[in-house]
């Protein structure tokens, strides 16, 4: 990835499935590659990307495919995170449809690898350390010893200790019915801080070039509740002129009728959006809830 003299981005792209390589030129580039976004941001060389680092954590789950056990539970049940554990570690027992069949997952349990993607390279983490982010990463490590101890404890957990955690939700659980599976990778954002040297971010971080030609989304993968808000922020930061135009505003209102308005302060708008959402998703509204207000 490099900037051309005309301000456009020249990209070298490789299709992992076919192995084919090709070039592309773009006026705007969005880096939404999960853990792979940080290395790409560093390759871009934009000043706004300096000082960012990432700490990789893998997510592991106990999984049960026994239909007799799976049929007893059809919900998602949350507990409370252990003292000193990060927010994303809240334990829960969850019904999932995997390859068309129902399974139960319990977790998450943290693992560690130096890969930034599940099928990435073991060199991802060490190669991400640059002169501009070394101080933030070291400072963050020194200030988060409790988290470091927690991760070490998670990595060293035995199958029996994981089963004991599961039995708080399912007292009759037996080890023979569950097996450990790695679900994916999460890269926690580390960013420079004037006072602390570096801080660890548990959410997402939007980084955009000053000229609006490139934006990157770092950190945890956004869920449905945050993805739209994040993309609106990126559009506003990278296309400020277009966002003021009548054509863009009209299109935005068509896609998101509540854009720029408060559902908290406008009860009629809230009911309108709720009705439209229920009809689109074919949900049946709770009459007692709809009658409130």
What would you say this structure looks like, in words?
By secondary structure, this protein is of the alpha+beta class. It has a six-stranded antiparallel sheet. The chain has a three-stranded antiparallel sheet with strand order 1-2-3, with no helix packed on it. It is built from eleven helices and twelve strands. The model has no long low-confidence stretch (mean pLDDT 88). Helices cover 32% and strands 28% of the residues. The radius of gyration is 23 Å and the shape is globular. The chain has helices spanning 37-44, 67-70, 124-128, 134-143, 145-155, 159-166, 224-238, 240-243, 246-255, 267-281, 287-290, and strands at 2-3, 9-14, 21-26, 29-31, 53-64, 76-78, 92-98, 101-111, 179-193, 197-201, 204-208, 214-219.
Question: What are its keywords?
Answer:
six-stranded antiparallel β-sheet; 293 residues
- SS class: alpha+beta
Number of strands: 12
| Biggest sheet features | 6 strands, antiparallel
Mean pLDDT: 88
Strand order of the largest sheet: 6-7-8-5-9-10
What would you report as the Rg, rounded to the nearest angstrom?
Answer: 23 Å
Summarize the structure.
With 293 residues, the protein is an alpha+beta fold. Helices cover 32% and strands 28% of the residues. It has helices at 37-44, 67-70, 124-128, 134-143, 145-155, 159-166, 224-238, 240-243, 246-255, 267-281, 287-290; strands at 2-3, 9-14, 21-26, 29-31, 53-64, 76-78, 92-98, 101-111, 179-193, 197-201, 204-208, 214-219.
Task: Please render the helix and strand layout as text.
Blueprint: E1 2-3, E2 9-14, E3 21-26, E4 29-31, H1 37-44, E5 53-64, H2 67-70, E6 76-78, E7 92-98, E8 101-111, H3 124-128, H4 134-143, H5 145-155, H6 159-166, E9 179-193, E10 197-201, E11 204-208, E12 214-219, H7 224-238, H8 240-243, H9 246-255, H10 267-281, H11 287-290
Parallel strand pairs: 4-12
Antiparallel strand pairs: 1-2, 2-3, 5-8, 5-9, 6-7, 7-8, 9-10, 11-12
């Amino acid at each position: 990835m490099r900037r051309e003299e005309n301000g456009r981005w020249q990209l070298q792209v490789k299709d992992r499935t076919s192995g084919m390589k090709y070039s592309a030129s773009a006026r705007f580039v969005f880096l939404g590659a999960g853990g792979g976004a940080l290395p790409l941001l560093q390759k871009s060389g934009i000043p706004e990307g300096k000082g960012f680092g990432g700490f990789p954590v893998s997510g592991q789950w106990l999984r049960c495919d026994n239909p007799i056990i799976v049929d007893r539970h059809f919900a998602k049940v949350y507990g409370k995170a252990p003292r000193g554990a990060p927010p994303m570690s809240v334990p829960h027992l969850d019904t999932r449809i995997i390859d068309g069949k129902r399974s139960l997952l319990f977790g998450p349990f943290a693992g560690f690898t130096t890969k930034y993607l599940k099928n990435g390279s073991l060199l991802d983490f060490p190669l991400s350390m640059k002169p501009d982010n070394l101080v933030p990463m070291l400072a963050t490590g020194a200030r988060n010893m409790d988290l470091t101890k927690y991760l070490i404890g998670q990595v060293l957990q035995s199958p029996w200790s994981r089963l004991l955690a599961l039995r708080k939700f399912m007292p009759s659980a037996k080890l023979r019915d569950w097996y450990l599976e790695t679900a994916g990778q999460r890269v926690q954002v580390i960013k420079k801080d004037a006072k602390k040297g570096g801080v660890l971010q548990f959410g997402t971080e939007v980084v955009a070039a000053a000229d609006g030609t490139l934006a990157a989304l770092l950190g945890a993968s956004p869920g449905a509740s945050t993805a739209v808000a994040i993309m609106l922020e990126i559009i506003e930061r990278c296309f400020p002129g277009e966002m003021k135009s009548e054509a863009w505003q009209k299109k935005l209102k068509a896609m998101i009728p509540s854009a720029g308005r408060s559902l908290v302060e406008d009860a009629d708008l809230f009911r309108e959006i709720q009705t439209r959402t229920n009809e689109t998703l074919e949900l049946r509204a709770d009459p007692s809830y709809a009658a409130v207000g």
